[in-house]
Amino acid sequence: MAEALQLPELRLLQNSASEVVKRCDALRSVLGDLKREIGKVIVGQDEIVDLTLVGLFANGHILLEGVPGLGKTLLVRTLSQALLLPFSRIQFTPDLMPADIVGTNIVMENRTTGKRSLEFRAGPIFAQIVLADEVNRATPKTQSALLEAMQERRVTVAGRTYKLNEPFIVLATQNPIEQEGTYVLPEAQLDRFLFKLVVPYTTRQEMTKILERTTAGGTPQVNPIIDAERILHAQHLIRGVVAAPHVQDYAIRLVLATHPGGTGAPAVTNRYVRVGVSPRGAQALILGAKVRAVIDGRYAVSFRDIQQMALPALRHRVIVNFEAEAEDVSSDDVINELVRIVPCEVEAKEEEAVFAQG
Description:
By secondary structure, the chain is an alpha/beta fold. It has helices spanning about 15-40, 45-55, 70-80, 100, 140-145, 145-150, 185-190, 205-215, 230-240, 245-255, 265-270, 280-295, 305-315, 320-325, 330-340, 350-355, and strands spanning about 60-65, 85, 85-90, 105-110, 115-120, 130-135, 155, 160-165, 170-175, 195-200, 225, 275, 320.
């Protein structure tokens, strides 16, 4: 790994402003190098790549949704090659069992003494970058095997708990739930994902480049950029980015505006939303906004950062009702409307008036 790519050592001490600037600049440099390495393989999809990297340094799991063939799995594989972290892929199928993910105890016999004992064999979840491919093709029982690992960074087997090495990131892919042979992810499972990213179709120019790369010439080599220790340092640095009280309050009010029947809930929420966003959604907004601020060369979160994170952080947490489905109103539509009508800074009485007009 090149010396220029190494992040400075972080210490749990107060540092000068110049040192913070230096570390943020180093992180931006690493992010740029990661994007260039990923760009050797992935054509286009700049926003998806950017948000995947935001999720990595915000220490959150990511759900990638799109029809087959858009490069979801390839993106995760390419990212794993650019990170010096153990990688595993779990192909989710209807007959996959929870033990196939977390591992199981097996009976082992000592050849010398003939005694038998139980020995734990770890499953693929014990990697640090885990690709849960086509996660919605497994049954809800199997999907639930990810819950403890994603939230607690540990797994429990036969009453014994095993801690997972950090950083630990699950990047799951899924095909749209309208296709046959899939299961809707439970709300509790969805809430564990920091972001849900919808992968769009490629453009004409991008498809031309894809064909040029895949039907002629050799396979590009992706170089490793950053290791586990420096990823953890970077994640620690991100949490030190400032979110001023009035900016944090804006994120809170966005989340509260998704709660139907809540105080000051706008008309769009009361009409179309069945279940609103949990506190995890507010955490996702703030952490994602902090990474975005550093990427843009700033050391404090802005209202714009919160707005840019609204769709990926909230779209899978806003559950619309039957009326919304009947009128073809999606969670994205609701969130975009909330971003439009929820004021950045306003007194409580003025806010209620704005909501009433919305």
